[in-house]
């Protein structure tokens, strides 16, 4: 009935089957006179989604999450993951060969120091670590009397005989009708930032920032329209973009050459060497620039200046064209979501649908819009205990039937040329328990606290994060992920630098788009998450002594009323939810058939 085009459900290779690869790596390390090696889940630009040719951590360990690190020593091997992936890693890696450790607290460096001996030589690929990460690793090694050694050529690549070729996705133009600003104007703003930094040039090591600056998009990685590339923007003169020319048509090359020189990726080393030989100060993004770039600039006599890439903040605050585009994308997405939610309510209680069926149905409804370019990440469709795995990815082996009494957590998003979406809904299949309704309502109240927040200019995500957790905390509960992340404009669904979390130190600015997604997860039982995307907008507050901001909900999808304990809501929360559901009904109803209209009327009825 339905099918998925942009997602697969194949089971990743299991940990036990990969033990031979670990042995082969140890042999290669011994040949290179290295005691051990550090394997990050990373490509040269620290992208969230990396091409298959850079999935070294998954190839070696079997762990397929988006964040992780492995350390391999002769007699010990550990994989480090954060709280989102603890359960997943435990299921994917061979527990006899690997131990699963925390990526955050304590940090991996402490494990390394404990396991090293004086004189050990630990290899690392300087193209896959930032300089800050390399410095932490070097300090941990030094503490044990060991040495961190940069390698020429990644040892995993020497044993990965069937490693895929690097991607050659075609580059497209993202014109001013979608971007809202021509390249010349963006470059003028970037040069103001270069002047402010007091440097001679800025290296754009984040492909998202290259794409934004030069108004291009690509298809080198899954689910993000990203053209893998670098750029160097000097204080004066034309910038250079470094990109494989095989990705460029005559039209896209002409577009780029209007504002930049176009060179092959391997020319980046020569360009930076030439700049550095004059003693130039060159700005590098501390979050994405490889340690290899720092070493190159220093070695040629230049001064690397590490800090936040100013383009990230420019990109995060959307202009009027991008904002209207994302509103349009969310209205389109809302129709697909309503059709999907109606379908689930009709079919799931019969007990025949599976998690994969839900993924395929939702993607199909989005494809019916005629505008879907891709999903913005693999859909998380977890029912019952699978819903408690925060970043669960259903496979044919793990696929679970959706049964009455279950909660179905579905977290999904779409890539449209005019905007990127991300939405999570938790759906009651049959009658929920009192515990489910209590937990859901606590999560909902946290979601509403963010949605209704009014805050002064300069407020950071860390200052708001507590609002989302307060009602869970009152019951001794919490969730082990951030409350919200930034979202791009037909770019990454997870965009920095702003976020709503304990670590969110970037002030929220008008035009930024962030997710609002508190949750609760009961291991081996159920998961709950409610997510809308929110636009930071100005708020008029009578008597305010400084500019005030708040949020506009971009996502338009019903929140399951059956899971709400209305007695737990305040009058203002209850009124906000009724008004939100009225907005959903007004935006979506006319585009639905009669059956789905009837469902929508019930799903959005006043509490």
From TrEMBL:
Pfam families (alphabetical):
Creatinase_N, Creatinase_N_2, Peptidase_M24, Peptidase_M24_C
Q: Which residues form the Peptidase M24 domain?
A: 325-536
- Its signal peptide is none
Q: Which SUPFAM superfamilies match?
A: Creatinase/aminopeptidase, Creatinase/prolidase N-terminal domain
What does UniProt give as GO cellular component? Answer: cytoplasm
Occurrences of domain Creatinase N-terminal (ranges): 21-153
Q: Which UniProt keywords apply?
A: Aminopeptidase, Hydrolase, Metal-binding, Protease
List the molecular function annotations (GO) for this entry.
metal ion binding; metalloaminopeptidase activity
Stretches assigned to the Peptidase M24 C-terminal domain: 548-607
Name under which the protein is recorded: Putative aminopeptidase P
* Stated family: Belongs to the peptidase M24B family.
- Write down the InterPro entries for this protein, in alphabetical order: Creatin/AminoP/Spt16_N (IPR029149), Creatinase/aminopeptidase-like (IPR036005), Creatinase_N (IPR000587), Pept_M24 (IPR000994), Pept_M24B (IPR033740), Peptidase_M24_C (IPR032416), X-Pro_aminopeptidase_P (IPR050422)
Q: Which domain of life is it from?
A: Bacteria
* Membrane-spanning intervals of the chain: none
């Amino acid at each position: 009935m339905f099918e998925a085009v942009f997602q697969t459900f194949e089971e990743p290779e299991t940990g036990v089957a990969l033990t031979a690869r670990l042995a082969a790596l140890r042999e290669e390390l011994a040949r290179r006179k290295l005691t051990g090696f550090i394997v990050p889940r990373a490509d040269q630009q620290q992208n969230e989604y990396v091409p298959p040719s850079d999935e070294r951590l998954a190839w070696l360990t079997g762990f397929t999450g988006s964040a992780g690190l492995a350390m391999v020593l002769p007699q010990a091997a550990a994989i480090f993951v954060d709280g989102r992936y603890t359960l997943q890693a435990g299921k994917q890696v061979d527990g006899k060969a690997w131990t699963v450790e925390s990526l955050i607290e304590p940090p991996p460096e402490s494990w390394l120091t404990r396991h090293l001996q004086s004189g050990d030589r630990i290899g690392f690929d300087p193209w896959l670590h930032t300089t800050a990460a390399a410095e932490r690793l070097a300090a941990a090694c030094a503490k044990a009397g060991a040495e961190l050694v940069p390698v020429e050529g990644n040892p995993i690549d020497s044993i990965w005989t069937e490693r895929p070729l690097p991607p050659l996705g075609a580059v497209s133009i993202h014109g001013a009708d979608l971007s809202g600003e021509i390249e010349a104007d963006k470059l003028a703003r970037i040069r103001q930032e270069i002047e402010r930094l007091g440097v001679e040039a800025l290296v754009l090591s984040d492909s998202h920032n290259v794409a934004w600056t030069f108004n291009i998009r690509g298809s080198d990685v899954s689910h993000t329209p990203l053209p893998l590339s670098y750029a160097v923007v000097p204080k004066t003169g034309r910038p250079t973009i470094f990109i494989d020319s095989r990705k460029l048509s005559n039209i896209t090359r002409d577009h780029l050459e209007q504002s930049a020189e176009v060179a092959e990726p391997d020319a980046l080393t020569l360009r930076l060497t030439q700049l550095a030989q004059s003693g130039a100060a060159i700005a590098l993004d501390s979050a994405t620039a490889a340690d290899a770039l720092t070493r190159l600039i220093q070695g040629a006599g230049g001064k690397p200046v590490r800090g936040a890439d100013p383009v990230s903040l420019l990109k995060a605050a959307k202009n009027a064209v991008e904002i209207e585009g994302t509103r349009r994308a969310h209205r389109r997405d809302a129709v697909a979501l309503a059709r999907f939610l109606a379908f689930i309510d009709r079919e799931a209680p019969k007990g025949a649908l599976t998690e994969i069926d839900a993924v395929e149905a939702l993607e199909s409804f989005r494809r019916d819009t005629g505008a879907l370019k891709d999903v913005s990440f693999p859909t998380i469709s977890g029912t019952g205990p699978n819903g408690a795995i925060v970043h669960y990815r259903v496979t044919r082996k793990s696929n679970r039937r959706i049964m009455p009494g279950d909660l179905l957590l579905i977290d999904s998003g779409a890539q449209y040329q005019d905007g990127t979406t991300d939405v999570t809904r938790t759906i009651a299949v049959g009658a929920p328990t009192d515990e489910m309704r209590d937990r859901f309502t606590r999560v909902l109240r946290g979601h509403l606290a963010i949605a209704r927040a009014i805050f002064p200019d300069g407020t950071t995500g860390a200052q708001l994060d507590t609002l989302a957790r307060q009602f869970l905390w009152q019951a001794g509960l919490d969730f082990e992920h951030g409350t919200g992340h930034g979202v791009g404009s037909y770019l990454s669904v997870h965009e920095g630098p702003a976020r709503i979390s304990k670590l969110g130190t970037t002030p929220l600015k008008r035009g930024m788009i962030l997710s609002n997604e508190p949750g609760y997860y009961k291991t081996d039982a159920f998961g709950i998450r409610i997510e809308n995307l929110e636009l930071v907008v100005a708020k008029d507050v009578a008597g305010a002594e400084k500019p005030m901001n708040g949020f506009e909900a971009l996502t338009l999808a019903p929140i399951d009323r059956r899971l709400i304990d209305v007695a737990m809501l305040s009058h203002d929360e209850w009124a906000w939810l009724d008004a939100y559901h009225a907005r959903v009904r007004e935006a979506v109803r006319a585009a639905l058939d009669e059956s789905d209209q009837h469902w929508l009327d019930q799903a959005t009825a006043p509490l």
